[in-house]
């Protein structure tokens, strides 16, 4: 019986009968000489039905969403349906009701006194279900792809556990709480606040679920391509006379360099220049901290700072005898002779070296090269600079008394 009373067809038939009854009553009264002509009832369909209830404890599981109104009035605004919907309210009051299904009368307010209001149906069933709170972890849902060559790290979410309030019958359907984050094209770390979504076991959004809190803060590290390469120390100038470097140590031997893929790929076989250290005024042991330079097209370098330990000692001198003179750059059709200041041909030089005693002790003749470069020189006699190359750069240097130029005679074979 209740099912039939609440059916759509019953509502329409009842509305029609109510309208006919109202019209009959008005017209019967109109036979009196003192009455005025009354308009037929105005029917308004699909009027939203509101529910007043304890929203903190309950959830409306079932109710009719709309009702029908039959209005009897001579007011032209109602006659032509010109009154805005927000000026009226049709509702049921369940503030004193608990969970379960309740049959309650439909009430109204906001209508003028000269309007007779009929509501179809006048009594409705509303089911209240008690809310239940469950706790779930927040899962970060990474969407899209970072820029080519970049990599997304493990996301950090705060809070990592939240409360979910749902109707008691749906508590077991709460499978996950997700925080979606868009990574598309990202080239730097992401920090954002996103709304949380409650998902069921099928991966669909669970409608009507309340999340406390509504949002979460997400941080996703995004790193560029990187490579680890050795550091090349950038020691400039020389220690003051009488002092030499015994050792140079750094807190790390390699640095991690981040940047675009094409830059990093080209750097895999290179060294990375360290910060500049000027030796010109250092006469004792030092520990120097310098910020690592960031080259063009490089995103960052780790570590940010480099510690350089310098051990400085009084200089010593060691002579390496009969070091061969090497001639470079000579054309295949030419031959060359190196001449002494006295005009005699020479093929070796004695080399006095200056450095820390501990390093000079291990220095051998094969650790030194004496070079004379005659590239692009035709036949003739030339004065050419002499270059001394040591196997331990920045630690050993030639003495100031060494020959700096020699005479080279170039002739055709």
UniProtKB/TrEMBL annotation:
Pfam families in UniProt: YbbR
Top-level taxon of origin: Bacteria
Gene3D superfamilies registered for this protein in UniProt: 2.170.120.30, YbbR-like domain
UniProt-recorded name of the protein: CdaR family protein
InterPro entries to which the protein is assigned, alphabetical: c-di-AMP_regulator, YbbR
